[in-house]
Amino acid sequence: MQIQGFHDLQFEAVREAFAELFNDPQERGAALCVQIAGETVLDVWAGTADKDGQQPWHTDTIANLFSCTKPFTAVTALQLVEEGKLELDVPVARYWPEFAAAGKQAITLRQLLSHRAGLPAIRQMMPREALYDWQTMVDALAAEEPWWTPGDGHGYAAITYGWLLGELIRRADGRTAGQSIVARTANPLGLDFHVGLADEEFYRVAHVARSKGNEGDEVAKRLLMTMMREPNSMSTRAFTNPPSIMTSTNTPEWRRMEQPAANGHGNARSLAGFYSGLLEGRLLEAEMLEQLTREHSIGEDKTLLAQTRFGLGCMLDQPNVPNATFGLGPKAFGHPGAGGSIGFADPDREVAFGFVTNTLGPYVLMDPRAQKLVKVLAACL
């Protein structure tokens, strides 16, 4: 497998570990970027980007980053808090009056950001096309009753996060959620990152497909069994309502929509650049970065049925939980995306890391491919 890009010789072992991923015949395309103290020390890519394995992965190939998008959304909301346009601890209903329905009058932005609001899913099944209708989805969430007492524990809002935070951002900022997020996070840092992709960019998007024959870890198996056996459970609804959530990734409608929980498009460079920007204080003041990365939720996740730990919109490291550690320092923060892409920062080592793949693995939290690369990176530092 020919590896494109460049690397500092100190990180030759990381490049070799990246090349080894392609020993698996199912591995199609991927990119990896590592920045240290704002300097790029490794930026490599390889494999194929299209469905038929004919189109090489290029320097400007981008992919659906799934939940790697969430921290961009959270940072945008926190910028609006810094500007006094939102507040962390006042009721969301102050900005969005309809949201007060069904016992949600006291839910705060802080609870939304830390997955404590009790709104990871919608009970009533929505039609497939509702996924692409912003107003339909935010109206449904405004009417939804919390699945548990808000603030009492946490449950990952896999996709509802995008509408809940996005609607607040839209109301506070006056632009659509995708426009606001890109203008506030990607543009100042020169990142190739999009929430709501223009049609003329479609040619460079990697086609995403699942790998076969791998059942994943215990957490993945448990969640899959729940979704098969309990179609009306909160966990199942979180990933399958509207039913188009799981099947739309490669469609034009998915790429065009602005769903800031799950359909950001970018590359490894844009993930590493985002976390470098955070570490350098270019996106948030120190006080707000501390809020972002401070533990707000830990323990059994009511949606994922696994132990998770969150700040305000980012996942925090759990060094002693094998499937929930980024693999560097204990203060690491970031977010994995479904199927294996990941972006994170380790403030102790000033490392910003981005890994993007179009070969989806069946893991719920951290993908072993990325963890393996980080392990080799740690040995090089």
TrEMBL record:
SUPFAM superfamilies the record matches: beta-lactamase/transpeptidase-like (SSF56601)
TM spans (from-to): none
GO molecular function: hydrolase activity
Domain annotation Beta-lactamase-related: ranges: 17-371
Pfam family of the protein (one): Beta-lactamase
Key words of the record: Hydrolase
Protein name as annotated: Serine hydrolase
Classification of source organism: Bacteria, Pseudomonadati, Pseudomonadota, Gammaproteobacteria, Pseudomonadales
